[in-house]
TrEMBL record:
Comp. bias (Basic residues): 407-426
Organism: Mucilaginibacter straminoryzae
GO (cellular component) term, any one: cytosol
Annotated GO biological process: response to temperature stimulus; ribosome assembly
Catalytic activity, reaction form: ATP + H2O = ADP + phosphate + H(+)
SMART domains: DEXDc (SM00487), HELICc (SM00490)
Helicase C-terminal domain boundaries: 234-382
Protein's name in the database: DEAD-box ATP-dependent RNA helicase RhpA
Length: 426
């Protein structure tokens, strides 16, 4: 199938040709016709499947055709909600690329920067608004954003909005948009609360599911390196001695860990920058731009900050630390091997992470091959050391968490606090 067979208008086909796209990905082939039919859509798709184009291309066509038929005053016709600034910027860039010949105006708003340029653009009038929930609510409350003429509402990466605590903000925004609208809802996973939200806001939706989160792309060559925790930095430097590895995305569990890895790489003459929630918006965008232009060879990221990073020709992803949630492993390696290209994913695993690796193997229903060719093999524990470690593990499991201890102290007096979800480490 080609994009021409999807009955797209000439201005969009011309833009796609300029971008070098002729064949839609599976989710694009399924979703674009449904969206053009004005159906509500529930899409379950992980990163790297082409879902941004799956909703932005038909959205541009719908608004372009309606604009031709109806000379309406400039008002926001479509709202795209995303969890992170980086993802919002990526979507806005996609709209610019695919909609360059449509004449439609779009903009992106997010927090962490001055709102003045954003409010100036809103006053001039736009067709499509891409936004993060917090800044959008601020501008709505100040009277700068009006959604009374909204025709299409799109929620992207809804599961991440839940993880980041944005669901209540999203519900407040949805309460302000017209009931008569088309709604497109995308999420990589479907936890109970996200499914309930989808059921509430979608009207008889068509369902599209491509590459479940439990599967990894066949184009990605995966390897696991067993290594002691204290040798991980040395192993990373060893791997990066290979100059053919030109651009690498490295994942850490924490912001502090990301900064430590960057400091060590820079000390060893390897250009690296970190991207995480403690960085200013300008610093994050500068790091991303440097990575895209190959000024920076290594980008070290936490999971939430990495959502929305879309870099062409990213050949290598390295998991410096294994994630505590096995699905996150799939999200991470999905940054490479996109659109049929080959990718390489390395995972470092120390003694304490072996249980996490077992969970990943169970999820993806395969065993990741072990690379034993490196100079920092995991030291084998003696039987006595093994028994000691197992005892330490069992003690940790028996000790109540801080939240549980707090619950015991407070009793049931503050139910709202007691039911609060624990914050996830970045």
């Amino acid at each position: 199938m080609t994009f021409q067979e999807l009955n797209l208008i000439e201005p969009i086909l011309r833009a796609l040709k300029t971008e070098g796209y002729t064949t839609p990905t599976p989710i694009q082939a399924q979703a674009i016709p449904l969206v053009l039919q004005r159906r509500d859509l529930l899409g379950c798709a992980q990163t790297g499947t082409g879902k941004t184009a799956a909703f932005s291309i038909p959205l541009l066509q719908i608004l372009s055709q309606e604009r031709t038929n109806h000379k309406e005053p400039k008002a926001i016709k479509a709202l795209i909600l995303t969890p992170t600034r980086e993802l919002a910027i990526q979507i806005d860039e996609s709209l610019a690329a695919y909609g360059r010949h449509t004449g439609l105006k779009h903009m992106v708003i997010f927090g962490g920067v001055s709102q003045n340029p954003q409010t100036d653009a809103l006053r001039r009038g736009i067709d499509i608004l891409v936004a993060t929930p917090g800044r959008l609510l601020d501008l709505m409350n100040q009277g700068y954003v009006h959604l009374s003429q909204l025709k299409v509402l799109i929620l992207d990466e809804a599961d991440r909005m839940l993880d980041m605590g944005f669901v209540h903000d999203v519900k407040r925004i949805i309460a302000k948009v017209p009931a008569k609208r088309q709604t497109l809802f995308f999420s990589a996973t479907m936890p109970k609360e996200i499914q309930q939200l989808a059921d509430t806001i979608l009207n008889n939706p068509a369902k599209v599911e491509v590459t479940p989160v439990s599967s990894t792309a066949d184009t990605i060559n995966q390897s696991v390196f067993f290594v002691d925790k204290g040798d991980k930095r040395a192993l990373l430097n060893h791997i990066l001695k290979d100059k053919s590895i030109e651009r690498v995305l490295v994942f850490t569990r924490t912001k502090h860990g990301a900064d430590k890895v960057v400091k060590d790489l820079n000390r060893n003459g390897i250009t690296a920058e970190a991207i995480h929630g403690n960085k200013s918006q300008n610093a994050r965008q500068r790091a991303l731009n440097n990575f895209k232009s190959s000024t920076t060879r290594v980008l070290v990221a936490t999971d939430i900050a990495a959502r929305g990073i879309d870099v062409d020709e990213l050949t290598h992803v390295i998991q410096y630390e294994l994630p505590e949630v096995p699905e996150t492993y799939v999200h991470r390696i999905g940054r490479t091997g996109r659109a049929g290209a080959n990718g390489i994913a390395f995972a470092f695993c120390d003694e304490e992470e072996k249980d996490l690796l077992k969970d990943i193997h169970k999820l993806i229903a395969k065993t990741i091959p072990v690379d034993e060719s490196h100079p920092y093999p995991l030291k084998q524990l003696t039987p006595q050391e093994r028994i000691k470690k197992d005892l330490e593990k069992s003690k940790v499991k028996q000790v109540p968490s801080s939240s549980e201890r707090n619950k015991q102290k407070r009793g049931n007096g503050n139910r709202r606090w007691g039911n609060k979800r624990p914050a996830k480490a970045q």
